[in-house]
Amino acid sequence: MSRVAVMGAGAWGTAFAMIMADAGNPVTLWARRAAVAEGINSVRRNPDYLSDVPLPAGLTAVTDPQQALTDAELVVLAIPAQQLRANLLDWRLPNDSLLISLAKGVENETLLTMSQVVTDIGVDAERVLAVSGPNLAGEIGQRQPAAAVVAAHSTGTADRVAAACRTGYFRPYTSVDVVGCEIGGATKNAIALAVGMGQGLGMGANSLASLITRGLAETSRLGEALGADPHTFAGLAGMGDLVATCMSPLSRNRTFGELLGRGHDVAQARALSRGVTEGVRSAASIQALAERHDVDMPIVGHVVDVLAGRQTPRDAIGTMMARQTRPER
Fold first, then answer.
1. Fewest C-beta atoms under 10 Å: which of 11, 107, 128, 264?
2. Which transformation does this protein catalyse, written as a reaction (predicted)?
3. What sign results for the dihedral spanned by CA atoms 144, 6, 60, 33?
């Protein structure tokens, strides 16, 4: 049993706080809004996210981040990727806690992954982990069986956190490939936007399967250029997360892309969406990171062009199909 602070009461933060509490840990969930904290504490529901999910008694909510962080042994970072650094600089983190990132993105200004952002502010890399996998919050909230990867720089640290979040419905595996798990989690959001566009354009299984498969190839190329283990991308943090995000209507990124494919512009799609769509915020950063390492990522590049208004979804698909024939790799 470990004292846990979950920083962020969005859908995934709430679901992961539930997991940690169901695993027997005392959990404090930090929420920005007093109404959210009050709802969790009084009626055991988050009124804004997963409002139909009953939350366990071992979970309490507060609006003061320092109250949540005090004496926490495990600090779960469940805030949007582009907001992580500012929050970390504003908080006083416990000196010996482990920091577990749930965010899936690449920082716009620095092109760092989320674990790298944490270490960039001065936290020892040995204390920083990432959790990734096919983990749609809505299904987790229903306590449907799911699995994930807990990635750390040492097996002992990964084992400790995996033991702390294991329940009858949530099975964690461990890895020491932190960068691979993070690149898989970040890039799949951009690929899901492309798949959603295809869905919105009325494309069938052949088309969508092709996008997913070639998207995995792009993800693997970038990950390997950054030193990741190629086997990671065949697992839960690679293919697993990619398939779930691309194919489920619960996926914000796939749904956002579908709105674009149906003819909405980015502003309209944003207005119709709920919560943060990480792929929209990180796609250009992923493309820039790929260019820095001379990695070819055409699907991500076309997604960036659509988001910037330089192409329509239909034109982007046509341009990809017209690319020169080459060996599959």
1. 264
2. sn-glycerol 3-phosphate + NADP(+) = dihydroxyacetone phosphate + NADPH + H(+); sn-glycerol 3-phosphate + NAD(+) = dihydroxyacetone phosphate + NADH + H(+)
3. negative
In this structure, are 28 and 156 located in the same domain?
yes
| Average pLDDT estimate for 311-322 | 86
Together in a domain, 150 and 34: yes
Number of domains observed in the structure of the chain? 2
Q: What is the CATH number of the domain that holds 305?
A: 1.10.1040.10
pLDDT tens digits along 270-307: 998 877 788 888 999 999 999 999 999 999 999 999 99
Q: What does the DSSP assignment read for 37-51?
A: HHHHHHHS--SSSST
Is 277 domain-assigned? yes
194 shares its domain with 289:
yes
Q: What is the DSSP string of 142-170?
A: TT--EEEEEE-SSHHHHHHHHHHT--SSE
Token code pair at residue 95: 């000196």
Among 252, 192, 197, 199, CA closest to 216 = 192
Residue of 188, 221, 281, 302 marked catalytic: 188
Task: Give yes or no: residues 300 and 241 share one domain.
Answer: yes
| Rg of the chain over all Cα atoms, to the nearest angstrom | 19
Alpha helices (H) in 121-226, listed in sequence order: 137-141, 155-164, 178-200, 205-225
In terms of residue numbers, what domain contains 59?
Answer: 4-176
Q: Both 133 and 207 in a single domain?
A: no
Q: Residue 106 gets which letter from DSSP?
A: B
Q: Known binder of ligand: residue 251?
A: yes
Does position 76 have pLDDT exceeding 90, yes or no? yes
- Flag whether 329 is marked binding: no
Residue 13, annotated ligand binder? yes
CA distance 50 to 39: 12
Mean pLDDT (whole number) for 231-240: 96
Structure tokens at 81: 């990727």
The reply to whether 180 sits in an annotated binding site is no
Report pTM: 0.92
Query: Cα(158)–Cα(149) distance, rounded to whole angstroms?
Result: 9
